[in-house]
Amino acid sequence: MAGKPKLHYVRGRGKMESIRWLLAAAGVEFEEQFIETNEDLEKLRKNGQLLFQQVPMVEIDGMKMVQTRAILNYIAAKHNLYGKDLKERALIDMYVEGTTDLMGMIMSLPFQPPENKEKQTSLIFERATTRYFPVYEKVLKDHGQDFLVGGKFSWADVHLLEAILMVEEMKPDVLSAFPLLQAFKTRVSNIPTIKKFLQPGSQRKPPFDEKYIVQIRKIFNF
Ligand SMILES: N[C@@H](CCC(=O)N[C@@H](CS)C(=O)NCC(=O)O)C(=O)O
Fold it and tell me: What class does this enzyme belong to in the EC scheme (predicted)?
């Protein structure tokens, strides 16, 4: 039997967090090897472990996978969270890319110059409530099903819940105009694997704090 996947990344959310979410949702236990210093990163690079000299890197099924999207695709397909046919997969891809764009705006916020932060924060709320969340609310309304695609729990649901919780950390009432997304959030949060991941002490990571941003800058040299 293959061992547990081993995740190589910093001790924070970043690009690895959606991978942690997806593995957790699939009920897969995983190990984490944290990169704490630039030397740790350089060691991985020098050992030829990182195809493009970047992390996330996940050791899984005898591979050393890099590129976040490739890793997520592999896990989703392997654990049957990627639709039943090409058209469902296309929908899942579109929904996931939307939530990825929204989460990308949030993830870049701590790295913005201070004078940009207020503007960027307003833009995040505007995009969440006028561009992204209305789409998912409408999808749920139009088909009347519990999950976004094919009436079955998929990667798109996992990713949307992750995005909702990220925006709610900044603005707790952000779902006030989206009743179906509120119900969706409760429903998906109560799926046993997800419920476990949402408990304190799980491998889910907190948002970056200022101290951590300094460390990240040192690790990646920027
Ligand atoms: N396309 C890659 C980008 C990965 C990436 O930008 N990783 C950053 C850390 S989050 C990194 O390793 N930066 C160092 C570098 O690019 O040299 C992915 O999605 O995984």
Answer: transferase
